[in-house]
C-alpha cells in the first residue's frame, strides 16, 4: 500500500475527511458536550490524546495481531487508554472532570477512534499513525469548539465561560460576556440546538468546498474530492 | 483454523488483556490517593460555602454521621450530616438532604443549619433540571438559592414555606415551578428534621442510625 504524505494526512484530518463534519463519527459526545467552548475543548483534547495513543499502539502491534482477533484487541487497547485518561483527569484536572466526567467513558464508544484504528493505524507506519491521530483529533476538537462557541454565544451570550476549569486562575479573565443579563436562547443549549448547529456548520463547510471546487475547475487542475459522509 | 492456531490466537488476545489490565491497575494505584484528596477538597469547598472556615475548628469531613428518615430527608438511603463545632460547642451542621420530586428526578442538596435553627444557606449539588429554566437553582446560574439564607421555621411561618404561586413566601422561577417547589419543600423538611432531632444530632461521635420519630 502506498504511504500517504504527511501533508495529505494533515489535510484529511483537519478538513477533507474531518471526523466531526465529514465522516460524522462520534456524534454522541459531539452533540452532548458542546454546550460551551470549554466543554468542547476539554472533550476534544481528551479525544485527541486517546486517538494519538491508540493509533500509535495499534500501529506498533499491527504485525503481531492476527486479522481474526484485531477488533477485540483494538477494543481492549482503546478501553484501557480511555480508562487511564479518565483516572488521570480525575486526579489532575478534577474540576474539569466534574463537568466532563460522564462523557469521558463515552470516548470508548466514539467510532472515530476505532474507525481510525481499523482503517488507518493498522495499515500504516507509526509516524503516519501518530500524525493521523493528531490531525483527526485536532479536526474533531475544532468542530467541538466551533459548535460549543455557537451554542454558548446564542444560548448564554458568553464565550469561554468557566475557562478557569482548564486554565486555572488565568482563565478567570478569559470569559467574554457579549450581552449583559441575557435571558438565554434555550433551544441552543438543549440537544436540538446541537443538531441545528452541526447542520449549519456542515452546510457552511459544503459551501466553502463547492466554491473551492469551482475555482479549481476554472483553473482546470484536478480538484481534491472530499470523501463521502 | 486448526487447533494450534486457535490456542496461539487466544493467547495473544489474553496477553493484550493482561497488559491492558496491568496498565489500568498501575494508573489506578497511582491516582487513587490524589483522586480521594480531590473529592474531599471539592466537598470541603462546598461545605465551606455554608459554614465559613473560621466559624469552626473541627475537621468537618471527619465529624460526620449518617442518618436516615425517608419522609423528612427525601431518600430512603443514608444521609450524611456534617457537624461544625468551635471549642467543642455545636456551631452548625450540613445535611445532605434530597428533594425527591424535581422536574427530572431527584435534586441533591446541602442544607446548612446553624445550631439555633436558622439556615446558613442551601446549595444544589446535583440535579438534572432543564438547562436555562430549572437550572437557575444552581448557584453558578442565579441568586435564587440565596433566598434561603437566614430563614428558619419561624421566618417565614411554617405554612408560608411554599412558592408564591402556592401562597407562600418564596420566589418561583420563570418557566419553572416544579423545581423551586421541590426545593422549598425539601429545605422545610430538613429544618423539621433538625428541630425534631437536634438533641441527638450533635451528640453522637460515632456513625449511628437515628430512630425515625413518628
Features:
heterodimer; A: 229 residues; mainly alpha; two-stranded antiparallel ribbon; 2% strand; B: 3 helices; 36% helix
Give a summary of the structure in a few sentences.
Chain A is mainly α.
Write up this protein.
The complex is a heterodimer of chains A (229) and B (214). Chain A has helices at 6-16, 27-33, 37-60, 70-92, 94-100, 111-119, 126-156, 164-167, 186-189, 191-218, and strands at residues 158-159, 176-177. Chain A is an all-alpha fold. In chain A, strands 1-2 form a two-stranded antiparallel ribbon. Chain A is globular. The mean pLDDT of chain A is 83. Chain B is extended, with a radius of gyration of 23 Å. By secondary structure, chain B is α+β, with helices and mostly antiparallel strands. The model of chain B is unreliable at 206-214 (pLDDT under 50). In chain B, strands 1, 2, 3, 4, 5 and 6 form a six-stranded antiparallel beta sheet that branches. The A-B interface holds A 35, 64-66, 68-69, 72-73, 76-77, 79-80, 83-84, 87-88, 90-92, 94-95, 98, 155, 184, 186, 189-190 and B 1, 9, 12-13, 16-17, 20-21, 23-24, 27-28, 31, 34-35, 38-39, 41-42, 130-133.
Q: Which geometry of chain A do the CA atoms define?
A: globular
Q: Give the distance, in angstroms, between the N- and C-terminal Cα atoms of chain B.
A: 71 Å
Trace the largest sheet of chain A across and list its strands. Answer: 1-2
Tell me about the largest β-sheet of chain B: 6 strands, antiparallel
Q: Count the E strands of chain B.
A: 6
Structural class of chain B: alpha+beta
| Average pLDDT score of chain B | 84
Query: Helix and strand succession of chain B?
Result: HEHEEEEEH
- Indicate the percent of residues in helices of chain A: 55-70%
Amino acid at each position: 500500500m502506498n504511504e500517504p504524505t504527511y501533508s495529505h494526512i494533515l489535510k484529511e484530518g483537519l478538513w477533507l475527511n474531518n471526523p466531526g463534519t465529514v465522516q460524522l463519527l462520534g456524534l454522541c459526545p459531539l452533540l452532548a458536550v458542546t454546550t460551551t467552548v470549554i466543554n468542547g475543548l476539554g472533550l476534544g483534547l481528551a479525544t485527541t490524546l486517546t486517538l494519538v495513543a491508540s493509533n500509535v499502539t495499534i500501529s506498533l502491534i499491527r504485525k503481531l495481531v492476527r486479522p481474526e482477533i484485531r477488533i477485540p484487541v483494538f477494543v481492549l487497547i482503546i478501553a484501557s487508554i480511555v480508562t487511564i485518561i479518565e483516572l488521570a483527569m480525575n486526579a489532575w484536572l478534577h474540576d474539569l472532570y466534574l463537568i466532563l466526567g460522564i462523557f469521558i467513558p463515552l470516548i470508548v464508544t466514539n467510532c472515530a477512534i476505532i474507525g481510525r484504528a481499523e482503517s488507518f493505524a493498522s495499515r500504516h507506519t507509526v509516524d503516519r499513525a501518530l500524525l493521523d491521530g493528531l490531525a483527526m483529533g485536532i479536526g474533531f476538537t475544532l468542530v467541538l469548539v466551533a459548535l460549543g462557541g455557537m451554542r454558548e454565544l446564542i444560548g448564554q451570550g458568553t464565550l469561554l465561560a468557566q475557562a478557569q476549569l482548564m486554565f486555572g486562575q488565568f482563565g478567570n479573565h478569559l470569559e467574554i460576556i457579549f450581552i449583559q443579563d441575557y435571558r438565554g436562547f434555550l433551544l441552543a443549549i438543549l440537544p436540538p440546538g446541537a443538531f441545528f448547529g452541526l447542520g449549519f456548520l456542515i452546510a457552511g463547510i459544503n459551501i466553502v468546498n463547492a466554491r473551492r471546487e469551482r475555482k479549481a475547475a476554472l483553473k482546470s487542475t484536478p480538484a481534491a474530492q472530499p470523501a463521502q459522509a | 483454523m486448526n487447533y494450534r492456531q486457535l490456542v496461539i490466537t487466544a493467547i495473544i488476545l489474553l496477553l493484550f488483556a493482561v497488559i491492558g489490565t496491568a496498565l489500568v491497575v498501575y494508573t489506578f494505584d497511582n491516582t487513587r490517593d490524589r483522586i480521594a484528596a480531590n473529592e474531599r477538597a471539592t466537598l470541603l469547598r462546598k461545605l465551606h460555602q455554608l459554614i465559613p472556615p473560621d466559624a469552626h475548628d473541627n475537621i468537618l469531613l471527619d465529624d460526620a454521621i449518617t442518618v436516615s428518615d425517608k419522609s423528612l430527608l427525601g431518600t430512603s438511603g443514608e444521609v450524611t450530616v456534617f457537624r461544625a463545632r468551635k471549642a467543642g460547642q455545636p456551631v452548625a451542621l450540613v445535611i445532605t438532604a434530597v428533594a425527591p420530586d424535581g422536574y427530572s428526578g431527584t435534586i441533591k442538596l446541602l442544607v446548612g443549619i446553624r445550631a439555633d435553627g436558622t439556615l446558613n444557606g442551601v446549595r444544589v449539588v446535583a440535579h438534572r433540571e432543564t438547562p436555562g429554566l430549572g437550572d437557575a437553582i444552581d448557584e453558578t446560574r442565579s441568586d435564587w438559592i440565596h433566598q434561603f439564607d437566614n430563614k428558619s421555621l419561624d421566618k417565614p411561618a411554617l405554612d408560608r414555606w411554599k412558592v408564591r404561586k402556592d401562597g407562600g413566601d418564596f420566589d418561583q422561577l420563570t418557566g419553572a415551578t416544579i423545581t423551586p417547589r421541590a426545593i422549598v419543600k425539601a429545605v422545610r423538611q430538613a429544618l423539621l428534621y433538625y428541630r425534631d432531632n437536634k438533641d441527638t444530632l450533635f451528640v453522637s461521635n460515632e456513625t449511628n442510625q437515628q430512630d425515625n420519630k413518628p
